[in-house]
Amino acid sequence: MLQSDKVQSSKEGKIRLRNAYKEAGLTIEKLAEKAKVSQDTIKRLLGTKDYRNGVERRQVESIAKVLDIKPTDIVDPKDWNPQQIPPEFERLIKDKTESFSGRKFVFDAIEEFFSNNPNGYFTVVGDAGMGKSAIAAKYVLDNPEAICFFNIRAEGMNRPELFLKKIREQLMNRYQLQDAADTDLSTLLIKASERIGVGERLIIVVDALDEVDQESTGNLLYLPTILPERVYFLLTRRPYNQNEKRLNVSPSVSTKELDLRDYANRSSQDVKEYIWLLLNDREYQQGLSQWIQKQNHLSTTEFVEELATKSENNFMYLRCVLPAIAEGFYNNKPLDELPVGLQGYYENHWQLMGMTTKPLPKNKIKIIYVMCALRSAASREVVAKYSKQNELTVQEVLDRWAQFLQKQENYQPPRYRFYHESFRDFLHRQDIVQAAGVNLPDISAEVADNMTEGLFGYE
């Protein structure tokens, strides 16, 4: 945005501005003199003088600097930094934050790091399904000043050149950077940092570093070793070995990691909060209540405690199991027979879907593995083509595995892809592959032979 762009004060901002100049021992006249703005400008921000078009951003910054407050203390943050989420990530962010709850301890730690360091990398580490992407999505949604990139292996959105392209577009748009179409990330950040307003900071959220497709050496996504002041990265990734870290920075750049596995008690509270949230959700309330009532003398509180334990603090487990209970999938199973942990859930569901019965349903198994091999979301017709199965059989599999799939209805015909990479990982487990009697290289080669470049991926 330009310094000459117009903004208006929020209801809370008017109160904050009035209190701030009085606490500083200033009058409107003295504040105007120090900030080098007119008294009418201050009166407009206080709401004591009418104005339609707002006041210039640079004027708000000058006033905020004099009062030692942030421009966003006067102007609503969403108006000061309008949301600029790339369309590629809008659906993901909406999906990940739809039933979001808890994680306050994570956001508090992030804010503390950003507030106490001149720049740096803050990384959230956790196992599959622990809510890392949801944390990243929620942060972007609640902090309009943040720009973002979500690595999505299943869609081929996980390569350094795509990362740079999307980050460059957001930086150029937000900070009106000229002649930066071919600029590297380090130079871009320097250019952008020169335009960061008073009391502002530049935050770049990058989700799922473990999904990056980059063979060459150096930092993942070529993240800079040196950062300008007031420039921060919020990263998420799965646990890694030291040789997989691939984030080397200068001693002048601050770093911190928060490993969700080290916060079992706090995560457990968040998990319980999430269960209560779905228990009161209109979509699931009746089904969950009926299932609980069928259990022998099981109270709702006991259900929450027991399911939280079985989840092993894994939100993906709850996202799968709670809707399944509500839909009657476990009507014949008591609480103590529900699967334990995310991998336990996958194994249990795989068996319940008949994927281990003799003779093996090889046509349905192949459909699942073809979807695993496809690089991005695909329509029923495309899945049928590459699996060499008829569309009715494919649709049956899609319906039966609906809770594992993300249906993209903005395409016609609709496209489907696995909701979470952890299920793709499960399908690649050696014991599952051997028991299913599939040959992954053959399936991948069969798909690759017929797939033209760019058909499913991003140009």
Describe this structure in words.
- It is a single chain.
- By secondary structure, the protein is of the alpha/beta class.
- The protein folds into four domains: 6-76, 434 Repressor (Amino-terminal Domain); 87-261, P-loop containing nucleotide triphosphate hydrolases (Rossmann fold, 3-Layer(aba) Sandwich), CATH 3.40.50; 265-352, no CATH class; 362-450, Winged helix-like DNA-binding domain superfamily/Winged helix DNA-binding domain (Arc Repressor Mutant, subunit A), CATH 1.10.10.
- The protein is built from 22 helices and ten strands.
- The chain has helices at residues 11-23, 28-35, 39-46, 57-67, 71-74, 77-80, 87-97, 104-116, 132-142, 160-175, 185-193, 264-279, 285-294, 300-311, 315-326, 341-352, 362-373, 380-387, 391-400, 421-427, 430-436, 440-450, and strands spanning 6-7, 55-56, 120-125, 147-150, 202-207, 231-237, 254-259, 378-379, 405-408, 415-418.
- The protein has a five-stranded parallel sheet with strand order 4-5-6-3-7, with helices on both faces. A three-stranded antiparallel sheet has the order 8-10-9. Strands 1-2 form a two-stranded antiparallel ribbon.
- The radius of gyration is 26 Å and the shape is globular.
- The relative contact order is 0.09.
- Residues 17-74 form the HTH cro/C1-type domain.
- Pfam families: HTH_26.
- This is HTH cro/C1-type domain-containing protein.
- It comes from Brasilonema octagenarum UFV-OR1.
What is this structure's SSE topology?
Blueprint: E1 6-7, H1 11-23, H2 28-35, H3 39-46, E2 55-56, H4 57-67, H5 71-74, H6 77-80, H7 87-97, H8 104-116, E3 120-125, H9 132-142, E4 147-150, H10 160-175, H11 185-193, E5 202-207, E6 231-237, E7 254-259, H12 264-279, H13 285-294, H14 300-311, H15 315-326, H16 341-352, H17 362-373, E8 378-379, H18 380-387, H19 391-400, E9 405-408, E10 415-418, H20 421-427, H21 430-436, H22 440-450
Parallel strand pairs: 3-6, 3-7, 4-5, 5-6
Antiparallel strand pairs: 1-2, 8-10, 9-10
Protein name: HTH cro/C1-type domain-containing protein
Domain HTH cro/C1-type: 17-74
InterPro entries: Cro/C1-type_HTH, Lambda_DNA-bd_dom_sf, P-loop_NTPase
